[in-house]
Structures are given as structure tokens and as C-alpha cells.
């Protein structure tokens, strides 16, 4: 979506006065909570200097899609809000606002990319050629703001950058694996331009690449505006045909999903009033009501629009602008129509659980322990579940048979120890990853009579973020991080890498 620089000081002052700022920075620590089955999350233009929490309170929108995160310059691997080095990914930049949204029962969805980033090479996967660093940047956003969804706004030049598309999806797969290993709920949405009958080939290629990389796309969100086809448009009717076309395309990409599941992974983003093309593409409050009723009936996942700051009639008869809709309307007309969309979908999403029986065991060094890993359908229909195990110390080999089951099935976890395994108790994590998310369980293994030495530092975990000075144990050695890192295995980074070998435990 376009990023035009227009500051709305007068309206911002009125909003702040109306909503008050006493709540900002307040609230208690908030654990990431999954988004509702249906969510209305309009885009918030993060460069205007306004408070997202204050605008959310004034408008009635509980969830906001925060636009945008991008690098300062092409070639960088560090994202900033709007590419502004004064707005890094840190609690100091929007942290209090996001906590306030969460305390009110809403949340923020940080969005990477956008029109400006996608045309200047500063979209992070276009800018950075290191997949692990891209993944680390995504993880930092998740942990800094404790959010449950990241959005990828990919358009114009970024749609034609095949290397960037592949890096992005590979990095997202790493992040999804990290989230699963750490028990985090994390959704990924792709926001893409559309025709009136579905994605163009370039947008569809983004999703094809995700499938090829094993990257789960939770929401395919289409921008149902800016068609630029010189045709007359009924914007509500065009939204429906565009989404139907997307549904049919998704059916080819995900043949195992039902029609309801496919509609449940679709989002639409409108532009209130006159869009960038001009008056021939005008989305009215009456259109909004039609789209709302249709979206509820179809079971869509997400409703959004670009952008919250446009939802007012401050420039009737004007052209597209970031600070007003260009039509006659009341302030927040579109928000008030779409806001009730947020809530349960009414149809339970497919879900499952993972447990171990027994949950603990003791074995003499050199022998083998086993436990049964059970999966169960907790909602909806059964789905395929891939099982992985982490946390095994040096001298312990962990294997799962089978490594993939259908929810409701079981697997056997076998833990083979060697005589040199250090005595002690170790916690291993079994993670099940399905099409709708991940769940995990733990197993406590006690080893007795081993001749090895147990490391005192916590075992290294590929999904954990480490900062300079922190120590871990890995492969019988203690390692110290020299700087911030995640996903880089000790012993593989070389003499000048992030991990310093402190010697055998």
C-alpha cells in the first residue's frame, strides 16, 4: 500500500483530547494471545506521529495492522519503523501503545514492506541476503512486542524479486519452527495486490514459493482496490469476485483443505472512499456494509482497510489522500461498520494436542528409555502433524517413530544413551506442527551412572535469542555469546563468529 507523507496534527490533537493518554504505557505484562477467529485490523500509518492506542480508542478498532517495518537503506538487515533509525524495534518505539492495545483485548500486527519499501529495495528480504538474519529480525519483532501475527505487504518490485521471495519464505519457515519450539502462537499473513478475479501470476508465485519451502501461510490478504484497469467498478461486487478467485487459487495450492478452511484463511483490505486510481474506484459506506455481511457469511479471517487515518470526511470531493477518504462521511464510519467483525468464527478451527505418557523416566547410562507421544483432535477435523524433538544433551540420541502422524495417532519417542552420558535430569521437548499451528509437551529424562560431566549452563536452543555474555552448553562444551544471536549453532560459526568456546564442561 502507498505511503504518502501527510501529518494530521489537528485531527491527532482532537483524537488525543477525546481519548486521553492516561492509559498509554499502562497495563500489566501481556503474554501473546492468539488472534480471534475473525479479526478486523485496519492499517495504522506509523509515520504520522500519532498514537495508535489513542486512535484505536477513539475509533473503536481493537486490533491494528502497524505499517511499516523496513530497512534504512538497501543492503541492510536491520528493520526500523518506516526505515527511520529513530524508531528501532524496541519497547521505546510503540511499546507502550501496543501494551495498551493488548490490555484492552486487542493487539498489533506489525507489517513488513509496503509500497515505499517494495520500490526502494528496503523491504527486508529484498535488502538482506542472509536468511538467518532476516529470521532473527522477525523474531525480534515478535519477542519485543509479544505479538501473535506478522504481516508481509508485498507488492510492485518485490513481487518480481525471486531471490527476495525465496529468502522471505525460508526465513519465515525458520521463525515458525522457532515459535513452535518455544510454544509461541504465531500467524503469518501475506498482503498482496489482486485483480477483480484473484491474484495475478506474480502474487500467486509468492504463495507457491511458500508452499515449496514448507512455510505456513495463515492468511492470504488481498488489496481490493487500485485495479488501474480503466473500468467502471462496483467495489463491493469486485471484492467478492476477487476473493472467490483467490479461494479457487488456494484450493489448487492446498488441496487438503475444505472450502470453509480456505475461506477461513482469506482476508480483504479495502480503501475507504476514493482510491489512488480515482473516482471510478470509490468504496462507499454502503459498500462496507455489503462486504461486512458477505465476509461474515463466507467465514473470512480478516477485514482491514487502508488506513485508519483516512476514515473521515475531511476532504469531500478530493483525491486519494492518507488523511481523509475524499467522500462525504462521518468520522469512523468504516471502522464502526467493520469493528463487529472481530470475534469467534462460529466454526471451530481444526486443532490438536500433544502429550507424553509417561512424562518422565529414569535410565542407566548406556541403556534406552521410551515414552509414547499421543496426539488428539481437540477441535474440527484431524490434520497431519509433524513431530520433532529438541533438548537432547550430548550422549543422548532421540528418535520418533513415526515422525509424522494424523492427529489422533501416536508415536514412540526413543532415547538412547551412551555410557559417557553425564548423569543428571534433562528436559526434552516434543513439538507437533500441523497445518493450523503447533503444540508441544515435555519429557524429563534422568540418567544415572554416567561417566561424563554435566554442563551447568543451559543447553543451547536454536529458537532462543541470546545476548552478549550469555553462556550455553552444547556438545559437551560451554559457549559464550559475543553479541545478539539466534539460530546460530555453537561450534559452527568459526573463530571470529558469535560463539566463544570456553572449553569442555
Automatic annotation (TrEMBL):
Residues 1-31 form the signal peptide. Residues 38-345 form the GH18 domain. The keyword Hydrolase applies. InterPro entries: CBM5/12 (IPR003610), CBM_sf_5/12 (IPR036573), GH (IPR017853), GH18_Chitinase (IPR052750), Glyco_hydro18_cat (IPR001223). Keywords: Hydrolase, Signal. Transmembrane segments: none annotated. The keyword Amino-acid biosynthesis does not apply. CDD domains: ChiC_BD, GH18_PF-ChiA-like. Pfam families: CBM_5_12, Glyco_hydro_18. Gene3D superfamilies: Carbohydrate-binding module superfamily 5/12 (2.10.10.20), Glycosidases (3.20.20.80). It comes from the Bacteria. Coiled coil: none annotated. This is Chitinase.
